[in-house]
Every structure is written in structure tokens, then in C-alpha cells.
Amino acid sequence: MPVVSPTLSNLTGGGSDGWEVFMRARQMIAAGTPVLELTIGEHDIRTDPSILAAMDKAARGGHTGYAMVPGIVKLREAVARRVTERTGVPTSVENVMITPGGQAALFASHLATCPHGSKALYIDPYYATYPGTLRGVGAVAAPVPAHAENGFQPRASDIDAAATGASSLLINSPNNPTGVIYTRETLEDIAEVCKKRDLWLISDEVYDTQIWQGEHISPRSLPDMAERTLVIGSMSKSHAMTGSRVGWIVGPANIIAHISNLATHTTYGVAGFIQDAALFALEQGTALEDKVGAPFARRRELTVAILNKQNHIRMIPADGAMYVMLDIRETGLSGEDFANQLLDTHHIAVMPGESFGAAAAGHIRVAMTIADDAYVEALQTLCDFAAELCE
User: Fold this and answer.
1) Does one domain contain both 175 and 91?
2) What is the pLDDT of residues 98-137, one digit of tens each?
């Protein structure tokens, strides 16, 4: 009997995919039990009506046929301008490929940079799909730990020690799940290792509009890094367009051409009316981005205020993104056990740190993605639950 390809059957490495608590919460909801979900990075507001109106106008206007595979020129130009203005690195349409969301961009970038069987490095803690994406392109997924004691900033020495046989390094700043923004020093050290070890650097920057403290630096802007860096961007987080599936890759023109060729043989591009809506959204400038990000900035301040009134949970400095990572090791529970017990006893769903790698064990990730009053109630209940466990 025919068998499933090992590439797919081994996508999660034979272990957990990290989503068990989330799936259990959804099953409880389906059975009629109310659950406060602080799990996934889905905005509690929806795509702005003006963007939907632009999408509707484009679709009704006839932009429903095949669109240009690398992306419509005007959208690629808009992304190129955005990147040039924000990073100072001259960027043109030849450096931009439009993709069906950031996830497709991650897959294509690794397929372009990782020969089959080569090692692909990624920082642990990581977004849950990273290792599966790397295995999916035929690479050997190799985590490099970033430790809580170091503020989850990766260390160049750890990357260098893991780099033998590697083709690429995947980083994410602002970071999901920790909310940490990598410092200039961290990024400069990473860049030096990439040059020393001749690695492609794949920089996932989908949270680059959600900066609450400090600055976001794209490593593509560092000396001699533009030629070896692929930047992943997306409209999902910046403009609450998660379901529209539109993102991009920015990189050297020659590799962008190869990725465009890949799209011809796989996705065949992104729907034209969705690209038109993305173009409209980018043309609104930072005002719309700030509007989308404002609830998370506000809830971060609420989080700090609540956590400052207790002594059992430590918050990892959340300088960006829509999450906070909480250290719950004082309770004596793993992140997994804490999350499951919190769900069972209080019907509050959070993601265990272990869902994002071994380095996040003993932590939980809280998504700041429900209305302020419900969020405050859930977080206070979470703190009270931790206090009971510590008694």
C-alpha cells in the first residue's frame, strides 16, 4: 500500500505539535463551555472596514483573475518604499516577492537557501511552526537556545557552536513568543557569525510595527548583510489581515527571482483583489498601523500594573509584539501543567512555554488579544491561581 512521504510524516519530528492546550480549549468551547482564550495571535478587532471596502472594490472591478506571480508591481513598489524608509537600505521591486502570508514566505525562503539534508538553525523559544517548516523543506531543524537568564537574547557563541553544517539561521524580532526585541549588540553579533560561517540569515519581522519600548533593527541594514539576508514581512499583524494571507520576502534580486519561479510551480501567486487591498492599507501610512497596535500597547501597560502587585510570576520584558511571556517556575509546575490546570479550574486558556521549545519550559505565553476588561479579569485570576499554588 502507498505510504505518506517521510517528509510529511516527520513534520513534527514524531512529537507534539505544541497545540494541545489550544485544541482542548476549542473543544470545550464547542461543547458549550465559555473559555477566555489568551492563546493565538489573532486580533480581537477585525480588518479595518476601509481595507475591506478596497478589497470589495477591486474584486467587483474585475481583479479576480490570475495576478502576476511575484506580486503586482504597485504593491511590490509600496513594500520596497516601506523597507527603504524604515531601514535605510535601498530596495526595489526586484528585491520583493509577494507571498500568501508570512508562513509561505518562511517556507519558500528556506527552500531557496537550504540544500536538502543541510542544517537549518532557529532560535529557541520559537514560533510553533518553525521546526516543521524547516523539516518540510528537507532540512535538519536545529534549535539554538536563548535563555531566560539572558532575557532570551540569543548568544553568538551558541549560534557559532551549532553552525557546523548549517546553511541558514532563522531569527524573529520582535519575538513571538517572548515579546523580546533583539538589541543592536545581539544583532551585530549574529551578523558576524553569519558572515564567519557563510550562513543565510532569515529574519522574520512580521511584528515590526508593534514596538512598545526600544527600537527594531532589521539585520539587513547591518554592514555587508543585505546580500545574505531574507526578510519576512506580512500584513497579518500590522493591519489585522490574518485571513487575507498576504506577506512578502525581501532579499537579493537573484534569489527573489528563484523564489518567484518556485511560486509559479506551487502557489501561483496571491489573489489580485487581496493585493489591491494590501496596497491600499500600506498607503494609509502609520496611522492605521498604530490603530491596529494600540490595544496591545494598552494591555501591555495593564499587564505590568497587575504583575507589579504580586510576587510569584515574573514577566519577561515585553518590548514588542502582542504577547507577554510569564515565568511561572515558582509554582513548581511546568508550563504545560500550569496551562492545563488553569484551563480546567478557571476556563482560561494560555499557551505553555514548552509549545515554543525547551528554552521556554516553566513559562507560559499570554496573548493580549481579548477586550481590556476581560483581559484584566483573566490575568488577575491567573495571578491568584499562581499565588494559591505557591502557598
Assistant:
1) yes
2) 999 999 999 999 999 999 999 999 999 999 999 999 999 9
| pLDDT above 90 for 79 | yes
Tell me the CATH number at 201. Answer: 3.40.640.10
What global pTM score does this model have?
0.95
- Domain membership flag for residue 391: no
Q: Print burial letters for 8-38: b (CB count within 10 Å at least 16), e (below 16).
A: eeebbeeeeebbebbebbeebeeeeeebbbb
**Are 216 and 122 in a shared domain?**
yes
Confidence at residue 319, expressed as pLDDT on a 0 to 100 scale = 95
279 lies in the same domain as 312: no
Contact 50, 58 (CB under 8 A): no
State how far the Cα of 343 lies from the Cα of 345, in Å rounded to an integer: 6
Residue 89 lies in a domain: yes
325 found inside a domain: yes
Residue 16: the pLDDT is: 62
Distance of CA 168 to the CA centre of its chain: 18
For the record, the C-alpha cell of 166 comes out as 548549517
Distances (CA, A) of 157 to 166, 183, 222, 308, 329: 15, 16, 19, 34, 27
Where residue 119 falls (left for φ over 0; alpha for ψ -120 to 50; beta otherwise) is beta
55 part of a folded domain: no
What is the pLDDT at residue 19?
82
Mean pLDDT, the chain, integer: 96
What tens digit of pLDDT does each residue of 41-55 get?
A: 899 999 999 999 999
141 and 213 both lie in a single domain:
yes
Residues in the chain: 391
Whether residue 214 sits in one domain with residue 347: no
Q: What confidence score (pLDDT) does residue 15 get?
A: 61
**CB count, 10 Å around CB of 192?**
17
The CA–CA distances, whole Å, from 127 to 178, 318, 354 equal 10, 16, 11
